[in-house]
Amino acid sequence: MKSREEEYKEIFIAEALEYFDSLNRHISTLEKQPDDDQTLAEIFRLLHNLKANSKAIGYLQISDVSHKLETAFSLIRNKELAFSDEVVAVLFDGIDMLGELIQNVDNPDQGEPDPILLRNLDIIVENLSDSTIELTKVQKYNTSKNLSLSELIYIQIKKLDHMMNLVGELMIDRDRIISISKELGNDELASVSSHLYRITEDLQYSVMGARLVNIGSLFNKFPRIVRDVAAAEKKEVNLELTGQDIQIDRNILQIITDSLLHLVRNAITHGLERPEEREKKGKSRVGHLRLRAQSDRENVLLELSDDGRGIDLRKVQKTAVERKLVTEEVAAGLDETETLSFLFEPGFSTAKEVTEYSGRGVGLDVVKNAIDSIGGRLTLETEKGKGTTFSMLLPTSIAVKGALLFEVNGIFYAIPLIHTDQVVALDKDELHEVGDVLITDLKGETVTVVYLHELLNAPEADMRLGDKTRLKGQVQNIIVVSYNNRKLGLIVDKLYRQQDIVVKPLSKPLESIDLYGGVTLLGTGKVCLVLDVPALTRYFINRRQG
């Protein structure tokens, strides 16, 4: 994996070369139309950005030349310097020098910028009162040298998206070819399909890798944000950042940016106490906020932790009763996980009093929905008086997902692994009928269990989810899924394997069925429906509460 410094340098060079090409184009336009204010403004913007970026990364020669050129064009914009032939020649030479400095940032033999040219730039900038500026004739660089192109290029995200979609289609056909080769028992076809598998896998990870960016590109924006919000709230906050080198799909990072900003602001505003309040509790005056990223091959985990006041569960339950989300009797029996899930319900945390009750921010349902949209998972842990942690488990790719394949009533289904907690085989006697549902004990935790055949196929009037007599066989295969701090056990007929799948949206009118998040095609040619765990969990919870 590249270091953060190497990646930043590559990004800078690619962007700087693009600026250089744009400067050449715009200054040629300006020579023909010296009064074109829009072109002048664009040249000034490019030079200003190049100056700031090169200074930030430590390329001071580029920064210095950019600054001189920026100043010259500022004077031209303000009509303090005429865009004469002599001035044009110097500015063209200055931009050429920028190009050479950018292309040779790692060349120790490049030497210093041409002192005669730097002197001319200084004369242009400093001798404004003298209308007859005497410029030294610059010895032109070698104009017969070969043209060179950068090894780095910019690619529009939509082009990478299209490539990823094509790779997805290729993966589906690859699996089909492999399946056919096994059916035919043809050794030559098996050899070719095996080679195709390796190439397709390499291509998949290459395209996915081209879309990756360091999460530090987002994390490094937060120290300033934290400082500003803390100052406005009259609070003292120390931000700790970890895992800036972790890489993530650029589209996913874009989608969760607003959500993370929302959580950080709320942690400072509602989670952390004022200095005097912290001192009374025996805490340090400075509140601590930690933003951490870590990854495995499949997922990226983002955690935001504060050591603030935590969430008062009883006040959350009271608010849920007041908003008629649950009865007082049911609320009294809810555990911590079920209580915290109310914070993510639409409309729950939009009123001012709820912020005071929960000590947590406005609009957490919006955060949850954004993470749901990319197939991610959001969980929350809190301890009153100690602090709160939000955890966001995010996929490394939107197009390709790790999934668990299974069968119910002869139909193939898949569940994204990101929502799968565990798979267990339980004896029917370990399932207990309570009211109209089944429950079981898993490692000391009570989990509601649903017979998936009943939930997906039976008419609602006929559904008896707590009726054990409808179960097939003595041993039940159960997939435990998790969403919105709730767990749900799904009884299935047969379990198959884990597999990377390419999820395609359902066509009309099937796309209106909430329980399905899409469809994929297996190597056998069978159609496989992909379950939407958030929708499935919401449907079951709403049905119980209804």
From TrEMBL:
GO terms for molecular function: ATP binding; phosphorelay sensor kinase activity. Residues 195-398 form the Histidine kinase domain. Residues 1-105 form the HPt domain. Keywords: ATP-binding, Chemotaxis, Kinase, Nucleotide-binding, Phosphoprotein, Transferase, Two-component regulatory system. The keyword Transferase applies. It catalyses: ATP + protein L-histidine = ADP + protein N-phospho-L-histidine. GO terms for biological process: chemotaxis. The modification Phosphohistidine is found at H48. Its EC number is 2.7.13.3. It comes from the Bacteria. Residues 400-542 form the CheW-like domain. One of its GO terms (cellular component) is cytoplasm. It is an enzyme of class 2 (transferase). InterPro entries: Bact_Chemotaxis_CheA, CheA-like_dim, CheA-like_homodim_sf, CheW-like_dom_sf, CheW-lke_dom, HATPase_C_sf, HATPase_dom, His_kinase_dom. Involved in the transmission of sensory signals from the chemoreceptors to the flagellar motors. CheA is autophosphorylated; it can transfer its phosphate group to either CheB or CheY. This is Chemotaxis protein CheA. It comes from Pontibacter ummariensis.
